[in-house]
Amino acid sequence: MDSAAADGPQPGPGPAANPLGHGPVLLLTGARLADGRVVDVRISGDRIQAVGTAGGLGPLPALPGAPTVTTGARIDLRGYLLLPAPAEAHAHYDVAFSAALTAPPPETSTDLTRRVTEAALTSLGYGATAQRTHVRIGDVHGLRRLEAVLTAQQALRGLAELQAVAMPRLLTGLAGADGRAQLRDALKLGATAAGGCPELDPDPAGYVQLLLEAAREADCPVDLHTTAADPGRLARLAGALAPLRPRVVLGPCGSLAPGASTVLANAGIRVVCLPQNGGCAGLEGLAAGLRPALLRELVKARVPLAAGSGSLRDGANPVGRADPLEAAYLLAAGGVLDVEAAYDAVSNQARLALGLPPVRVDAGFPAELLAVRGDSLAGALAGGHSRLVVHSGRVVSRTSAVREFADTVALALPRQADGTDGRGPSE
After folding, report:
1. Which of 151, 159, 223, 250 is surrounded by the most beta carbons within 10 Å?
2. What is the pLDDT of residues 296-355, one digit of tens each?
3. Residue 170: DSSP 8-state
């Protein structure tokens, strides 16, 4: 049985039967919003054109002197929750899937591009229409990994927005000369942001100053790794970065010293945490795990908080996943945030960390949406596997899951909606 075809949102009749190839107008019908309303949503181009009561929206009204626009798809979202699409705020796609390699082969441009593309598509399938990956540059890597990310970025255009953060390991002294040159070249080549981990440089303060100079020269944001374990060093870092706000992101801050959250709040710096295990490939050593008390302190101090995956089956987390809903689930299950705030951390807060505008399921907002099977946000985080992803007003991914049970005479198993196909409840 083809499970992808057996369940999930179905297109209505019309010229565009395939929802992955619809025309300029997309009508989503019968969708439930997080506030409980059931609505129809009409999308025109890359924007939400109208949101109305279920059954109340038809074709796009005609402009004066123009015909009514009817080309497009009608997709039935009954049984689905419609949400602003999540974003991946912190990934390392250049090392994705590397944990399974017993002896890493020589990196070729083709292999790197394939790895990055597969990682980005994996994340997109979970719903992340905007993604940011940190990429090591300099040393033996040169700019090969960044070039692979930029190649994948072009290939994914129209499917997802992929950003790259250039990460030199060293910047100061004679040893950092290569890193300084590679950073400027990377930003000229098309890297979205300047980043790295100052704690890996012999002179962390000097690293930050050199990075800021390059960022100002390129007029780009800064996205840095830090454990935030040293309160004094964090205060100096926050002070140096404050003039660049709001274009500054720090993460994962997994060893934040008590009381240090006030420093981040006063500096107006946004933090991206990594709920899976608190660490990633941008930091050396084993992850210490993410302490819920640390995140509660950040929330209490009103530090803008987003969440990312950090790892996708790499050395920092061999079982890492790229599912933003899992990150939200972990935040909610740990009691750090309520369900709504946990999802906001992987959706609008993550988008803000990437410098993107927020999304609401309302007229005029970007058509960046995720439909996930479930009747509530809590239910979706608990196990929403069937998903439909909309990017720039176009359905770009659809995942359908079907749960089946063996026949039994002892119990009457629930069936699909029409009760005729003999399968168990779909998910």
Report:
1. 223
2. 999 999 999 999 999 999 999 999 999 999 999 999 998 989 999 999 999 999 999 999
3. -
Question: Residues 37, 54: contact at Cβ < 8 Å?
Answer: no
Question: Is the pTM above the cut of 0.70?
Answer: yes
CA pair distance 425, 416, nearest whole angstrom = 6
DSSP for 298-365 reads HHHTT--EEE----SSBTTBTT----HHHHHHHHHHTTSS-HHHHHHHHTHHHHHHTT-----SSTTS
pLDDT at residue 409, rounded to an integer: 62
Q: What's at 420, amino acid-wise?
A: T
Q: Would the CA dihedral through 322, 323, 328, 334 be positive or negative?
A: negative
Omega cis (within 30) before 318: no
Distance CA 47, CA 393 (A): 6
Q: How many Å apart are CA 69 and CA 54, to the nearest integer?
A: 20
Distance CA 251, CA 411 (A): 51
Question: pLDDT category, 11, cuts 50, 70, 90?
Answer: low
